[in-house]
Amino acid sequence: MAKKLLEMHSITKEFPGVKALDNVNITVEEGEIHAVVGENGAGKSTLMNVLSGVYPYGSYSGDIFFDGQLCKFHSIKDSERLGIVIIHQELALVPYLSIGENMFLGNERQRRRGVVDWNETYQKAEEYLKVVGLEENPRTLVKDISVGKQQLVEIAKALAKDVRLLILDEPTSSLNEADSRKVLDLLLTLKRERGITSILISHKLNEVAYCADRITILRDGSTVETLDKNKDDVTEERIIRGMVGREMTERYPPRPNTIRSEVALEVRDWTVYHEIYTERKVVDRVSFKLHRGEVAGIYGLMGSGRTELALSIFGRAYGTKISGTLIKDGQVLELHSVPDAIAAGLTYVTEDRKDSGLILGNSIMHNITLPRMEFVAQRGRIDRDLERQTANHYRETLGIKAPSVEQYVGNLSGGNQQKVLLAKWIYSKPDILLLDEPTRGVDVGAKYEIYQIINDLAKQGKAILFISSELPEILGMCDRIYVMDSGRIIAEFPQSEATQEGIMNCIMQHSKGEIGA
Amino acid sequence: MSNFWTVLRNNLRQYMILLALLAIILAFQLMTNGMLLKPMNVSNLIFQNAYVVILAVGMLMCILTGGNIDLSVGSVVALIGACAGTFIITWGWNSHLSILLCLLIGIAIGAWQGFWIAYARIPAFIVTLSGMLVFRGLTLIVLGGLTLAPFPADFLAYSTGYIPDLFPTLNLFGLRNSTSFLVGVLLAIIYCITQVRGWITRKKKAYEVESPWILALKVVIVSAAVIWLFYTLGAYRGVPKVLITVGIVLIAYGYFTTHTVMGRHLYALGGNEKAARLSGVKTKQLLFLAYVNMAFLASIAGIVFAARLNSASPQAGQSFELDAIAACFIGGASAYGGIGTVGGTLIGAMTMGILNNGMSIMGISSNVQQVVKGLVLLGAVAFDVLGKQRMQLPFLAWLKRQPAAQQDKVQIEQ
User: Fold this and answer.
1) CB-based contact (8 Å) between A366 and chain B?
2) CA angle, corner A187, sides to A182 and A190, nearest 5?
3) Residue extents of the structural domains in chain A
4) Pairwise CA distance, residues B101 & B95, whole Å
5) Bridge partners (DSSP) listed for residue A435
6) Strand, coil or helix: what is A493?
7) Chain B: residue whose CA lies nearest to A13
8) Mind telling me how many Å the CA of A71 is from chain B's nearest CA?
9) What fold is seen in the domain B2-161+240-362?
10) pLDDT tens-digit profile of A327-361?
């Protein structure tokens, strides 16, 4: 049996009122990839914060042994000194500094005290970039490389600190599948060639099953079990059972056939240019149809133009030199602004609720009624009681778990925030919903509820465009699937003919230039 | 009752600052041997702070849009005073039409700055810093560096002096000006009636209502404060006319921010600009209007201030922008926008005003006064920020990660 690198014994961490971690045990062996999974709020991040010293020794009970030594970390610096490096979900790189500068930020190669040795910095940076397989000049500014490459820079940065235990918190949450695969393969390579131990926190169970040697499952602040790849039968279904504590036989609710014959929205030859680099086409002659009662999917990787497509349809909220025709219920639509689009019965539910969907410092009520204040106001005067009633109605029908609609949205869990976002746009009485990654950053249970909400909307005769980069979700939820790549729709599959392999092949071939062009 | 607690928690900052203001009043009342709340001094306080309150309300609208401030208001106050002086004193124009013209000039100034800020997307700090220099310079050019005085009586009539006593022989409770007291009682009655009627209609429509005790408590406290204020004013020379202007501004903007769609959009814009834009809020237009409005209120303040000095001076309004900004932040506005209330701003402005006045009565030198005011500003905001970090931040961060079922439990426990 391999040597134990890290042992955390009966860790308990309490916040005023509630136990966030309750007697959690976890053992990580040297040279393994250890996944920690659990629903949102299960305590994964808290556990990692305890381990890395964000919560100092004494603010929790229990013991941490690293390399056989009892550890009493008082800050992140203490844990880093022992080689425990955490890479957070939100990348912590400075966009206007170069790759090399970022890599040695806070850990500068110095000639004398306080004087940076640039030659060594860039030479070392180049070495580490080679290790992570990133072919970039270390003098390139971080803002000029893709998010996928930035993630690799983060890992290189950790390596530069002589990492022994690498902790990655949702490392692929903002990456497309190809880049995600690259990061995961890198972890496997680092394990094989350099013996680096890592802890991987992830929502994406296929990734966990792909690269983890052992998996610890947390639920409601306690360890449920630890699965071993060599001993147990590790499948996604098995992991989910541990996470939610019940058998999730159906990850997607059954999709009843609610499609009506009327075309709700038709888009013809839609072309959009980039907002800043105005000579770059981001959406190229896209045409598609949405029927009433239909959930049509757009599958595309990040950067395929799917968000730009939806935003530009939504009252030209993105892009320049937009051309093409929108036809809604047989009538040509001229939308010049977002208010136009909302008034015409269109909505766009953003992929990034914190950045562009919700006002976190406002109440649930104020968030829900924002897009169409006229429903709760007369001649510009808000009827606050009607507003509260309306908000309460949506809180109940969508099952938003909050004691009152006065609650600030920022205090809600991810799944509940997403429901508020949906509530806001359902409230605006749309005919057509453009949903951009509606289940991103939401745990398994809440995902199911959101799928049900979407099915209900379809049943009411609304037309739904479901944009996602998670293939299983697209396959499980959509009646028809469009595949998008580099600004174009390259294929269309009815649900019956769509398979994961078929869609991936289609994209692979398109990027090689065999279809389209 | 969880609803009540949520509301209480969301507005905790404002109750705290109100308590702090009451403590400051009490402290100065004791240290000045009761001078602070003598009728004459209360009247003075109103005259001294009227323009700061007007400016602060305008500043709040700018700050709400996303922490944007307007540095030019002091210069606009001076320029409008200079224009009024030139029109009325030098050229002998009609006072009323001149005031109207001055307000239009104010709106034009606001449109100029608003254009650069909202449509050309130049940071408000830079545009208004430029405005601060430009309008101060224009003031000096218009006045030729001289002070113009005095204004005719019909110009002064709008904002200096008192509302005349309608019942000079009444002498209720031995008051010099009984009208003032009666006005106070009338206002308190109107307030009570609207509150109670609103409560009853809400109850009838089966909307959520607060308990009758809380309603009664609120009504009694506010009415008592109003009656006390007008009683005190009545014991001196009556209601200062400028209080009407200030009152209208406070009520109008208080209503605007809490009850109108546009007011709500203002908060949304400051809370998350992208989300607001994607929700159909006309963000550029709103930002533009906030600055037009600011300059409009600055020109009202300019006229009030010129009348108070009874002159148009090239030095008028210096550092008014800082007083107005400080009032907003002491009153709980967020430097990032989207948070802040008219009530809080009034409390902030009163805090600054009472500090000024109280220390002056005590004979503390103005040098020391500046130090104290500066520290109070820092202290008020630091208390807010540190309080959040120490007690709430880890807690809030944790709350965000909790399943909501547990959240209920926490809230009830609190």
Assistant:
1) yes
2) 120
3) 1-83+164-249, 90-162, 252-345+430-517, 360-429
4) 10
5) A349, A466
6) strand
7) B398
8) 22
9) ABC transporter involved in vitamin B12 uptake, BtuC (1.10.3470)
10) 999 899 999 999 999 999 999 999 889 889 999 98
